[in-house]
Amino acid sequence: MRPESLLFAVLWLPLLCLAKIVEHVRDLDTQSFDFVVIGGGAAGNVIANRLTENADVSVLLLEAGGFDEDDLLVIVPAFSFNTMGSRLDWNYTAQIGQNNRTGSFSRGFVLGGSTAISMQTLPETPDGLGRAYSLTLERFTPPADNHNTSGQFDPAVHGFNGINSVSLSGFLHRFNELIIETGRMPETEFPFNLDPNSGHQLGIRWSQSTIFNGTRSSSAASYLAPPFRQRPNLHILLHAHVTRILPTTTNQSHYFSGVEFTQDAGETLQVVTATKEIILSAGTIGSPQILLSSGIGDSESLSELGISPLLHLPSVGQNLTEQPLLIYAWLVNSTDPRDFAGPNATALTAEYLEQWKETRTGPLVNGALSTICFLRLPDNASIFESFEDPSAVPTPDNFIGASPNLLTPASRGFLTLNTSNPLDHPLINLNLLSSEFDMFAMREGVRSVRRLMEAPPFQGFILQSTIVATTDEELDEYIRENVVAGLHPVGTASMSPKGADWGVVDPDLKLKGAEGIRVVDASVLPLVPAAHTQAPVYIVAERAADLIKAAWYL
Ligand SMILES: Cc1cc2nc3c(=O)[nH]c(=O)nc-3n(C[C@H](O)[C@H](O)[C@H](O)COP(=O)(O)OP(=O)(O)OC[C@H]3O[C@@H](n4cnc5c(N)ncnc54)[C@H](O)[C@@H]3O)c2cc1C
Ligand SMILES: *[C@@H]1O[C@H](CO)[C@@H](O)[C@H](O)[C@H]1NC(C)=O
Ligand SMILES: *[C@@H]1O[C@H](CO)[C@@H](O)[C@H](O)[C@H]1NC(C)=O
Ligand SMILES: *[C@@H]1O[C@H](CO)[C@@H](O)[C@H](O)[C@H]1NC(C)=O
Ligand SMILES: *[C@@H]1O[C@H](CO)[C@@H](O)[C@H](O)[C@H]1NC(C)=O
Ligand SMILES: *[C@@H]1O[C@H](CO)[C@@H](O)[C@H](O)[C@H]1NC(C)=O
Ligand SMILES: *[C@@H]1O[C@H](CO)[C@@H](O)[C@H](O)[C@H]1NC(C)=O
Ligand SMILES: *[C@@H]1O[C@H](CO)[C@@H](O)[C@H](O)[C@H]1NC(C)=O
Ligand SMILES: *[C@@H]1O[C@H](CO)[C@@H](O)[C@H](O)[C@H]1NC(C)=O
Ligand SMILES: *[C@@H]1O[C@H](CO)[C@@H](O)[C@H](O)[C@H]1NC(C)=O
Ligand SMILES: *[C@@H]1O[C@H](CO)[C@@H](O)[C@H](O)[C@H]1NC(C)=O
Questions:
Q1: Which residues are tagged catalytic?
Q2: 178/192 Cα distance (integer angstroms)
Q3: What Å distances lie between residue 251 and 240, 246, 290, 295, 309, CA to CA?
Q4: Coiled-coil intervals in this record (predicted)?
Q5: How far apart are CA 1 and CA 273, in angstroms?
Q6: pLDDT in tens, 514-527
Q7: In contact, 442 and 406? CB cutoff 8 Å
Q8: Is omega for the bond preceding 196 within 30 degrees of 0, making it cis?
């Protein structure tokens, strides 16, 4: 063999193996795969990774958005505020609450899904789920500024070898010091909590985020890191907007094996086949929309829209559950730009971005939250007589944010199709604050934040609240006018017991009444966790991957 041809062979092989993320359907070698995963977000990327651990299994992952590993909008943690409404966002509009007010409703439109645009805060779950997650899936890493983290988390309840990189805040604000000091005061209503995985969820604590060395760790950066995405049996097609799932043509059963998608805004439709299963992981909005567009939902309303009903599952799109959030800003007595979120983010960002590029340090290394405080309503709160316990930026002044966010809302919203065109946005009604419980809890949330900001350590630092409402009536009106989505929606393809007359999937996540399809993403959660939702979705997807492997002896 001549040296040139040897060189050719050596170079050619790695090139072939690297070409796993493709942008056009013609770049796929085949149209038939063992599994087709719809949506490359939190859940979809877990499934794609875990199923391709077995080299004999072929997986196609279809993602509507694109992917650029070096996209600053994704990888700079603090830019999470700029992702909303950007080219990385589906830009849904939703009816927010009770007064016909509509607002934007963000979901990630990029490989990594919402984990590529999220605020990167890790969850904290009271029931051991958080700890189970942390110990097995987490890789706890030093913060970007390498500060001594002793006393800021409990290493005993964290993992250091998992797939998702996590760190504490890598840039400390004065606000953080003051709030931790408040937590350490004797007999405070807001006690310091070392670690949410310790079994205690309540109190003030340091936030843990999916950030590594000052850089976002999305599900694409973790579950689809180069060693995984280069697997020859994993195929990733970008810019593939899935429109419907299709039943097999061989019989009239509810056996689904076809996935229809478009890469040119509906001008041409492509179909790929899953010989084993379709995994629907398009998220709380995308998954029910694809089901409804395919004729799976409430048969009567689908017929009215001109869609042939295939499978009557009236729960599709219903029970949409979202956490209400009230952005609450506080004017502060400081001119040090590191003490607050303003005043002129644009000017400061250019300077900080240089620092970030050079050393991966500075104010841009943090997500939205550096410190968190979880609270419960007191047991004697009047609302419990009628309810069971369910367990932005206003001015150019100097301000910080301390915002109440209800983790366990009782209100339920819904999603329906607006038209029969699968490419049109669905109608989303979050129906926030429709329950009296939620109104009560948000009102008390505002009051809790006020008590917190009045604590002695904040004196001389906090100048003024930007919300003046005080009576119940004034607060209710203010909250109704200003509540926004917490961006943790779940429940639109809810899991329910096998045989239940409601719900969309069985406990094994198989679509009820159908074969060949499972739903695996935030939409299957029947209740919103009293937490952030990213890690619960990872946990559900890891469990689903185990179930799928067991079902096919993989
Ligand atoms: C702005 C924002 C901030 C957030 N902050 C936090 C936080 O700080 N902490 C936290 O824990 N959680 C946070 N979340 C929530 C968290 O990101 C989600 O709960 C989680 O990503 C949901 O996972 P998923 O797999 O269900 O959906 P996603 O991660 O949204 O993935 C769905 C994927 O499917 C794709 N898709 C949808 N429809 C189609 C289609 N028709 N065809 C092809 N592909 C499709 C999407 O483009 C996307 O990639 C935030 C979310 C947002 C939007
Ligand atoms: C969302 O809006 C932004 C800004 O207008 C736009 O650039 C982007 O393409 C939109 N997203 C989608 C999926 O169309
Ligand atoms: C909301 O809109 C509906 C229909 O458009 C209307 O009947 C109702 O009065 C409106 N409600 C409020 C509070 O504006
Ligand atoms: C970190 O701080 C703790 C407690 O203050 C101290 O015991 C420890 O020695 C410090 N570690 C380092 C590496 O400085
Ligand atoms: C329909 O076809 C699929 C695949 O061809 C098969 O597995 C399934 O058993 C069939 N269902 C019925 C009811 O015949
Ligand atoms: C909504 O969820 C509840 C359980 O939390 C269930 O009883 C009800 O039937 C569901 N509604 C629909 C329309 O699925
Ligand atoms: C912010 O800074 C930029 C660049 O220095 C400047 O052009 C702009 O006017 C400033 N905006 C405000 C509100 O001060
Ligand atoms: C973090 O990023 C900096 C700047 O790019 C780099 O020099 C350093 O090696 C990185 N550290 C780790 C642990 O990856
Ligand atoms: C609840 O109990 C606390 C003390 O335990 C008391 O101060 C407060 O007034 C009570 N609130 C109500 C609404 O009864
Ligand atoms: C629903 O469809 C109507 C008619 O096509 C359109 O005018 C309206 O803007 C759509 N609503 C949403 C939320 O997309
Ligand atoms: C603002 O801070 C300065 C210095 O820390 C202090 O002297 C002054 O009293 C504070 N102003 C208010 C209104 O608290």
A1: 488, 532
A2: 12
A3: 27, 12, 22, 17, 16
A4: none
A5: 42
A6: 999 999 999 999 99
A7: yes
A8: no
Lowest-confidence pick of 224-238, 311-325, 339-353: 339-353
Give the Cα separation of 554 and 545 in Å (integer).
10
Instruction: Compute the mean pLDDT over every residue in the chain, rounded to the nearest whole number.
Output: 90
Residue 81 structural domain:
77-106+168-209+322-485
Q: Which atom of ligand 9 is nearest to the CA of 381?
A: 13
Indicate which atom in ligand 2 lies nearest the CA of residue 109: 13
- Within a domain: 11: no
| 444 and 364 housed in the same domain | yes
Question: Are 246 and 296 found together in one domain?
Answer: yes
Residue 9 lies in a domain: no
Distance of CA 156 to the CA centre of its chain: 26
Pocket test for ligand 8, best of 166, 360, 361, 365 (most atoms within 8 A of CB): 360
Residues with CB under 6 A from ligand 8: 213, 359-360
- Single out the residue in 485, 509, 534 at which a domain terminates: 485
Give the β-pairing of 256-262 and 241-247. antiparallel
Both 436 and 540 in one domain: the answer is no
Pair (396, 510) in one structural domain: no
Indicate if 393 and 521 belong to the same structural domain: no
Do 307 and 271 belong together in one domain?
yes
- Structure confidence at residue 101 as a pLDDT band (50, 70, 90): very high
Task: Determine whether the shortest distance from the Cβ of 204 to ligand 1 is under 6 A.
Answer: no
- How many structural domains are present in the chain? 2
* Distance from chain centroid for Cα 129: 17
Q: Are residues 468 and 497 in the same domain?
A: no
* CA of residue 379 to ligand 9 center, whole Å: 9
Of 120, 115, 346, the closest CA to residue 211 belongs to 120
CATH number of the domain at 287, please. Answer: 3.50.50.60
Structure tokens at 329: 């800003």
Quick check: is 293 in a domain? yes
Q: How far apart are CA 554 and CA 551, in angstroms?
A: 8
0.70 surpassed by pTM: yes
Residue type, 535: A
**How many angstroms separate the CA atoms of 201 and 193, rounded?**
7
Whether 249 and 368 share a structural domain: no
Q: Domain end: 485, 503, 535, which one?
A: 485
Q: Whose CA is nearest to atom 12 of ligand 5?
A: 253
Query: What CATH number is given to the structural domain containing 202?
Result: 3.30.560.10
Q: Give distance in angstroms: CA of 168 to centre of ligand 9.
A: 36
* pLDDT value, residue 95: 98
CB 323 less than 6 A from any atom of ligand 1: no
